[in-house]
């Protein structure tokens, strides 16, 4: 009887804290509902604007252009365990770019690009988590929470894309990978 009481208390506390959400008598992953008021935050770890030469502007924007052209081809973003090499390559470029010294004049532009790439990495990472959870075939954790986070970061990337897309006239924003059925 004591164990049942403890279990009921745990479930009530978890329900109140938002860890489990009851919907139509189904229990779903509680992280799947992201409040509309939540603002995506990203710490790009980008170096502050360089105060004096030499600047890495040319190298930074050359790598940024190559990266964006590869990502933004109008196709579905390559995600999941079958595309882990794509994730690793993008992450490697990101960490290379984050250390570059960009001039004050171009720093805001570079920061938008870094935010776009960071959001894209988050989309890929959350989709990978979603795929792993989905493959577990669990009635409780189906990956919906991770997919919702991937979607939130995708929407963030779209907003940033709107600010940088003029610099890439031949590029088309990638598409969000679909949920598995």
Kindly describe this structure.
There is one protein chain. The protein has 181 residues and is mainly α. It contains 5 helices and 2 strands, in the order H-E-E-H-H-H-H. The chain has helices at 2-17, 57-71, 84-98, 104-135, 144-164; strands at 20-23, 26-29. A two-stranded antiparallel ribbon has the order 1-2. A hairpin with a 2-residue loop joins strand 1 and strand 2 (26-29). Helix 2 (57-71) runs parallel beside helix 4 (104-135), helix 3 (84-98) runs antiparallel to helix 4 and helix 4 packs antiparallel against helix 5 (144-164). It is elongated, with a radius of gyration of 20 Å.
Name some characteristics of this structure.
single chain; 181 residues; mainly alpha
Shape: elongated
**Parts with pLDDT < 50 across at least 5 consecutive residues:** 4-32
Distance between the termini: 40 Å
Strand content: under 5%
Give the C-alpha Rg.
20 Å
Q: Largest sheet, if any? A: 2 strands, antiparallel
Helix content: 40-55%
Quaternary arrangement of the chains shown? single chain
Instruction: List how many beta strands DSSP finds.
Output: 2
Mean pLDDT: 80
Write the layout of secondary structure elements.
Layout: H1 2-17, E1 20-23, E2 26-29, H2 57-71, H3 84-98, H4 104-135, H5 144-164
Antiparallel strand pairs: 1-2
Helix pairs in contact: 2-4, 3-4, 4-5
Concise description?
Helix content is 55%, strand content 4%.
